[in-house]
Amino acid sequence: MKFSRALAVTAGCVVMMTALTTNRSLAQSSSSIPKNWHLLSYAKDSVYGTGVEKAYTELLKGKKSTPVIVAVIDSGIDTTHEDLKSILWTNPGEIPGNGIDDDKNGYVDDVHGWNFLGGKDGRSVKEDSDEATREYYRYKSLYVNPDSALNKESNEYRYWQRLQSKVARPSGEHKVAYRNMLKLQENLKKCESLLTGYLKQSDFNLAKLDSINTIDTDIMVAKNYMTRLMKSTGEPDITYSSFRSEFEEYLGELKKKAEMSEGAAPVDKRTEIIGDNINDINDKYYGNNDVMGQFGFHGTHVSGIIAAARNNGTGIDGIADNVRIMPVKAVPDGDERDKDVALAIRYAVDNGARIINMSFGKGFSPHKDWVDDAIRYAEEKNVLLIHAAGNDGNNNDSVDNFPNPVFADHTIAGNYITVGASSNGKQGGKVASFSNYGKKSVDLFAPGVQIYSTVPGGNKYGSASGTSMASPVVAGVAALVLSYYPNLSARQLKYVLEKSATPLPDSTKMVVKPGTRDENVAFSDLSITGGLVNAYEALKLADTMKGEKKIKNKRKKPKMEPVTKG
Predict the structure, then answer these.
(1) Burial of residue 409 (number of CB atoms within 10 Å: 0-12, 13-18, 19+)
(2) CA–CA distance, 470 with 419 (Å, rounded to integer)
(3) Half-sphere exposure of 479 (CA within 13 A, CB side)
(4) Residue 19 CA to chain centroid, in angstroms?
(5) Of 463, 474, 462, 385, which is closest to residue 421 (Cα–Cα)?
(6) Is a pLDDT exceeding 50 seen at residue 554?
(7) pLDDT at 177
(8) pTM of the model
(9) For residue range 28-53, what is the model confidence (pLDDT) as tens digits?
């Protein structure tokens, strides 16, 4: 699941249809939101932050911490980044570059982690199809005509009907939507030309648009058009270049769906590059050690949220100050494979991770049993899994989102937290409009709108939104708590984070239901806890508990030095 503003883009494009009919200018809020708002607290800064900075000042000063390994299963990480290179996990049993599996774990030269999307020749899978499409064409290959071949009362037929509704039936809608988006793209380009020419700069934000005052009607119409469009994202600090980039990405995805023809299965680049047997979970020693690659925006951003080096006078501060990030690459541009996810979890567990962040997800999981077994394995080894709820504005109680902690026997994993996305509470909605939710399936909410973090490029930073950002906020808080209270078990750590979750701090009870424009719902009904993650309260609660950690993982504990400051 890539971070995406697809819903907001769509809503914004609807706004664009009417924006040209009025010259009314929308006033930009004069209040500004600090870039590190997710680390701040409501009492001092009037934002729905996590209280991390308050905790360091009031609770942790002078206390010693223990290093915690956090695995980031994602798209890859910029290992050269100035704010990340000092906090990367290094495999103590591997000699870099000698081409030998020194630690005998089956993965050669896995110095900083492993790439399950890699081939022996050094290449990596960049793009993959969505799981629904893969399953749809797999069924057509198996049964030719599943509608007539399958028993109408069978679970397989019901599954096939779901695939049809997801893949075949919307194809016409995608074509219409794509044509409309192309028209809107033309308008976007016209406005860009007018506004950049008037401003004499290539990029602009809402504040800059608000400063435009001219008798030129075309410029004022373009200003109004773009203001409404950019405001529809709910992100007051967004730049035009950032929005355009995501719009073009969304347009590209829509084009792929629109061009998909009946009977044409997606191209399987994975088989060509990786060469493993995708249907054999025991064929597990594949991939390569390139955890960086050329498309690691998502994983780099996630890692910075968790643990970018603190107090080094550079860039940003992550949440946890004594963490080693273990990159495990398993998420392409498209839907991740169940096999890769299952093996990525096992790799992280076997190599000492205590927390695993999983900012991805999908609506179909043909080998959920493999992933479930890996989740059970992590639970046995005392590892906490933290997962993004998804960005479709759906109720996860009724719409599938995988992976999830519910096993086939209906028991629920005790080492799993699912996270929805909240906003800063000061501008826009209180809860992210795109966030999935669920009174029975989402555990809590965390900051996930306009989160500023590391991006690829060595010394670059940027903002992104999504439950993909909310999940590492919780992972960072979990790592912070565990580093100061290392004897807590995964079950206890989950309890601490959920029990200490707080209601909206300004006493707001009702919020706009995600996925709707104006339907109100009680915030307490959007998740199991009805609360926001709170680092300050979590640390206070952890201080009252006696640890019950029982380490079953007998792998030699890596020796780790404290993070170098400066």
Answers:
(1) exposed
(2) 7
(3) 33
(4) 32
(5) 474
(6) no
(7) 79
(8) 0.84
(9) 333 578 999 999 999 999 999 999 99
Task: Render pLDDT for 65-95 as a digit per residue (tens, 0 to 9).
Answer: 999 999 999 999 999 999 999 999 999 999 9
Tell me which residue of 210, 212, 202 sits closest to 240, measured CA to CA: 202
User: Which residues have C-beta within 8 Å of that of residue 421, sequence separation ≥ 6?
Assistant: 389, 391, 431, 432, 434, 435, 445, 446, 447, 448, 449, 465, 466, 467, 469, 470
Six-digit token pair at 279?
């249907």
Structure tokens at 109: 């030269």
Residue type, 101: D
The per-residue DSSP string of 259-318 comes to HPPTT-PPP-HHHHHT---TT-TT-----BS-SS-S--HHHHHHHHHHHPPTTSSSS---
Torsion region of 268: left, alpha or beta (phi above 0 gives left; psi -120 to 50 gives alpha): beta
Q: Strands, E, within 297-375: which ranges?
A: 323-329, 355-358
Q: In whole angstroms, what is the distance from residue 316 CA to residue 308 CA?
A: 7
Q: Which residues pair with 181 in a beta bridge?
A: none
Residue indicated by tokens 């169940």: 338
